[in-house]
Design a protein that fits this description.
Length: 133
């Protein structure tokens, strides 16, 4: 064997060793890709029921929102009716009630003044009588 052949054998051995060392990670990578493919397939199979449940939930939420819209519309109508009733009450009874309150205040004030004046007059009369005796 010549030194060139020995060098060729060493180079061939090194090449085989390099191929073996690179084949192990490639085989592991292939298994990893197979596992990832299986996991993706299972996730895809399990996603259909999840999407079905999400769709039914959204349908239920939309139904509830339609009910809330109806309630809101009714509340808006009630608010409008109360506003109209308040305006009607103010226009119809507000002025007369204010006038009646002012009249009753004025009458009570006048009665108090009259009573006070009568009391003062009675007190002056009693003082005069008391001074003469």
């Amino acid at each position: 064997m010549s030194p060139g052949q020995i060098a060729a054998l060493i180079a061939a051995g090194a090449f085989v060793l390099l191929v073996l060392l690179l084949a192990i990670p490639l085989l592991k990578l292939g298994r990893t890709l197979d596992e990832a493919t299986i996991a993706i397939r299972k996730a895809h199979e399990n996603s259909d029921p999840l999407f079905d449940q999400a769709n039914s939930t959204l349908t239920h939420v939309n139904t509830q929102l339609e009910r809330v819209d109806g309630i809101t519309a009714n509340a808006r109508a009630v608010t409008g009716n109360v506003s109209a009733l308040t305006s009607l009450f103010t226009a119809t009874l507000g002025g007369p009630l204010v006038k009646a309150a002012a009249l009753s205040y004025g009458v009570s004030k006048a009665v108090r003044r009259r009573r006070r004046a009568a009391a003062e007059k009675a007190e002056r009369t009693s003082r005069r009588r008391g001074g003469r005796r």
